[in-house]
Write a structure and sequence with these properties.
Layout: E1 7-10, H1 16-25, E2 33-36, E3 57-64, H2 74-89, E4 96-98, E5 102-105, E6 108-118, E7 123-131, H3 156-171, H4 175-184, E8 192-195, E9 198-205, E10 211-214, E11 220-223
Parallel strand pairs: 1-2
Antiparallel strand pairs: 2-3, 3-7, 4-5, 5-6, 6-7, 8-9, 9-10, 10-11
Helix pairs in contact: 2-3, 2-4
């Protein structure tokens, strides 16, 4: 079954990921998509909030089941689907991925992803927030210089259909295809990065999807998404 069927749309909800998780726990099928015109408690990675004015962003969550070992690459596969969807909606842009899964255009954040998995129950929820038509002054003051929007595409429901199409492809892709395409879109390659355990220069990702960093002493460290806090790019 493809993503997008069934599709539940809310005019207002606290979080599309929360609604999708409830549906998944109740047995909703693979491909179920939840969207909303407005979120009151949108969530990002590491406890961050995700905010957007009503009807100006794609707020999207999809249920993936059954969750299998081949889906270990999901954190890399989903950003590729978002990049391709955004580029289809706005062909003039070129999307890059800031590890692990922020979508950048011209160095500014266009979209964020939050994947919440329940391996013990065999499902995951793929959450995407994609800025569609948010003006600079509509972003919170601390995001006005670091966030960006598609501008030319304001309709969230057609955008959801486009994203579902690209998710269908990338969720089923093999690890080699995912890694090859992700490395082509790597926004951090050669850039200085810092995290709680040290600093160095980003040198791509390994076959598990971990960020590889060359340290000042010349060593190489593989950093997992749960332990890194990137402060420069």
């Amino acid at each position: 079954m493809s993503f997008g069927h069934p599709h539940r749309h809310f005019s207002r909800t606290d979080s599309t990921n929360s609604r999708a998780r409830e549906l998944a726990a109740a047995g909703a099928p693979h491909g179920t998509v939840v969207t909303a015109a407005e979120q009151t408690a949108g969530r990002g990675r590491q406890g961050r909030t995700w905010t957007a004015p009503p009807n100006k962003a794609l707020l999207y969550s999809a249920i993936l089941r059954p969750l299998q070992e081949r889906h270990m690459m999901l954190p890399l596969a989903v950003p590729l689907a978002v990049c391709e969807a955004a580029e289809q909606l706005e062909p003039s842009i070129n999307c890059r991925v800031k590890w692990p899964n922020d979508i950048l255009v011209e160095g500014r954040k266009l979209a964020g992803i939050l994947i919440e998995a329940r391996p013990q129950d065999g499902w995951a929820v793929i959450g995407v927030g994609l800025n569609l038509s948010i003006k600079r002054e509509e972003f919170p003051p601390d995001l006005r210089d670091t966030a960006i929007s598609l501008f030319g595409f304001a309709k969230a429901l057609p955008a959801a259909d486009v994203l579902s199409e690209h998710l269908n492809r990338w969720v089923q892709a093999g690890p080699d295809a995912i890694l090859n395409e992700w490395r082509e879109r790597d926004a951090l390659l050669g850039r200085k990065v810092e995290w709680d355990g040290g600093s160095g220069v980003a040198d791509g990702v390994d076959d598990r999807g971990y960020l590889v960093v060359v340290t000042p002493g010349g060593g190489r460290v593989a950093v997992g998404a749960g332990e890194v806090h990137l402060t420069s790019y």
